[in-house]
Amino acid sequence: MLSQIKGLHHVTSMASSATENNRFFTRVLGLRRVKKTVNFDAPDVYHLYYGDETGTPGTVMTYFPFPNARRGRPGAGEVGTTRFAIPKGSADAWAERLATFEVAGIRRGQLFGAETVRFEGPDGDGFLLVEAEDDRAPWTGGDISDDMAIRGFHSVDMRLRDAGRQEELLRFMGYEEVDRDGSLIRLAVPGEAATVVDLDIQPGAGTAAQGAGSVHHVAFAVENRARQLEVREALLDTGYQVTPVIDRDYFWAIYFRTPGGVLFEVATNEPGFDRDEDRAHLGEALKLPSQHEHLRAALEQHLEPLGA
């Protein structure tokens, strides 16, 4: 069993509008845009990162906004809901705030005894706010006060037809079962926050089709490149097809497809989002990987302005 995995690093999804996506995460949810760059494999499309003040691993939601992309079809083989931690006692205030912005699908509820607010993103993305004891410092540069601001990820759930080999994989990665609630199996690794993964077992679910509103992949955190190489070697030895290490400028990444169909990434906590921008100005300038710097003039003309 691996011990290098420290919980969630980031979650990456797809959107149909960069402007609307940016507005939703910065204005409605009050997260900080910590990086404005491009999809390394499709540089005519943004890659936008939102999180706490510095983009701490475990807080960062990222998006590929493909203009006018068709919506995805929810189903088995994907992350169904991305969940953020909020302070205890703030769920009602969040429900009211989301209603003020006319956010779709707002529902109060409970999950494993915690108060929750369910809602949808601009493309039907599945989100949940979960009240939790969480001492991480939030970003409060907008109009959301410290007593209700999002702390970072609480967890994700993965919609599957059966637990089977997906659960075996997570256990190999250091996760252990800690609870059950209806169709949900809760697993976690030791740590303070962003350590939970729920398996949502839906035997009759159809197969998911990716599109706007779908989670593209979920990334798990390791401290550094040495730990990442240890994880990669262990996964290869177990029979998984794992990519070589890829430099994503702000972290190094490896990817592999899981038995349940979900794409996993293992990302390093180094070097971080302030490697090429002062912390006071994260996410303001368009940052391009070196291989695409020659395209800057054309990309600045092509990519839609986002505003602050």
Automatic annotation (TrEMBL):
<dbReference type="Pfam" id="PF00903">
    <property type="entry name" value="Glyoxalase"/>
</dbReference>
<dbReference type="InterPro" id="IPR004360">
    <property type="entry name" value="Glyas_Fos-R_dOase_dom"/>
</dbReference>
<keyword id="KW-0223">Dioxygenase</keyword>
<feature type="domain" description="VOC">
    <location>
        <begin position="152"/>
        <end position="269"/>
    </location>
</feature>
<dbReference type="InterPro" id="IPR052537">
    <property type="entry name" value="Extradiol_RC_dioxygenase"/>
</dbReference>
<dbReference type="InterPro" id="IPR029068">
    <property type="entry name" value="Glyas_Bleomycin-R_OHBP_Dase"/>
</dbReference>
<dbReference type="GO" id="GO:0051213">
    <property type="term" value="F:dioxygenase activity"/>
</dbReference>
<feature type="domain" description="VOC">
    <location>
        <begin position="7"/>
        <end position="132"/>
    </location>
</feature>
<dbReference type="InterPro" id="IPR037523">
    <property type="entry name" value="VOC_core"/>
</dbReference>
<protein>
    <submittedName>
        <fullName>Ring-cleaving dioxygenase</fullName>
    </submittedName>
</protein>
<keyword id="KW-0560">Oxidoreductase</keyword>
